[in-house]
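Possible regression after last week's pipeline update?

I re-ran a chain I had predicted before the update to compare outputs. Posting the input and the new output here so someone can diff against the archived version. Not blocking, just want to make sure nothing changed silently.
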Amino acid sequence: MTKKRKLVRKLGKRGDVTDILIFSIIVFTFAVVLFTFTFIIPQITDGLRAGGLNNTPEGSSAIDRLESFGSEGIQRGFFLIFVGLLISNLISAFLVRTHPIFLFLYIFVLILTVLIGTYLGNAYDQLRNISIFSDQLASQTLINIVMENYILIIIGTAALSMVIVFSKFSSAGRSVQGQL
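New output (post-update):
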């Protein structure tokens, strides 16, 4: 056995057709949860300042760090998680062993994912249009960029993963990965 097969067997992980659907749901969930934190943290820091807990330099410094984490750190963390999910989706597509006859199944799952992604993108857009959240969401540029291009990202990721999955086959019909 080669080292790659041993590593894959040890990990026991294989890609799946539904990886793109799971990817889209996780990205939406992280966007909403982390946005909620970006909305709550300034409320907390304003309350701490109004309560007089910033009388000392240490207290003021802690409140400032919390506020900068809420405005910049969370959106950078979201983008890091997003890129990690994107890369893991492509890696798992490389680990899938499937026959080209299942292309119709991939296309069906892609259509289902785009349909669900459209609803999730619209839900995020409705969240952006709520007057209480609109000011805070305007400052979250990385989250907004990803969620404004949500469907295009899903389609691009799915197309790239389909190319990876179905390009591993040789003309004899055997997987190149199976020959390793």
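Follow-up from reviewer: compared with the archived run. The mean pLDDT is 80. Marking as no regression found.
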